[in-house]
Specification:
Blueprint lengths: L2 E7 L6 H12 L1 E5 H10 L3 H11 L6 H15 L5 E5 L5 H14 L3 E9 L2 H9 L1 E4 L7 E3 L21 E2 L6 H25 L2 E6 L4 H12 L2
Parallel strand pairs: 1-3, 1-4, 2-3, 4-8
Antiparallel strand pairs: 5-6, 5-7
Helix pairs in contact: 1-8, 2-3, 4-5
Length: 225
Amino acid sequence: MSKKAVIFLGPPGAGKGTISAVCQKEFNWKHLSTGNVCREHIVNKTDLGQEIAALISQGKLVPDQIIMNMIEMWIVTHQYNIDGIIFDGTPRTLEQSAFIDKMLNVQFSNFKTLVVKFEVDENVLMNRIESRVVCGNKDCQRVYSTQQDNSLQPKQFMKCDVCDHDLIHRPDDSRETLKKRLDVYYQHEKDMLQYYKDKGTTILVINAQEPVEQVFEYIKQISNC
């Protein structure tokens, strides 16, 4: 059975990171979150991190070349001893889709590409984002929710269940910034989906407003492809 390159397409707050954590545990797929990689640079205050932070605060995308270089280096480092890679947060443009597709075909041809499209109502996204908190430990960054009766609530108030680090609100998790990010995201998603359809790539469309357990059941459909 070939390894999987599973591309999660969906706007911020769609639950891609949460489902990625479940898939890592169940399928031995490694989670590649460009958001987390970027935030590591921001936390470490590298020159790149400061540039990325400025772009995010304005609701802009990180330039393709920066993203593509990070992706290639990450795969080279993590490709061994795993059954698949989850691309979360990238590709975000048609150009990134084509780059990743070419890179996988040339350098990592043992990975089969699959796409999962997360669909969520915009009002639901807004509520999720405004209540989202994450572990402040850059080596953990587990995602939680402060919403009442949400399955992602931490066991202890504003403390990570895994490493006991303080939970924080991301600076870019505001309604105003999210609206800008959504407008940009949906401009690109249509082109990316058409690209994968033209390539004959398997695309699974799921209702990501359902409970995490149900969303994972949908993901299982492609685990044996």
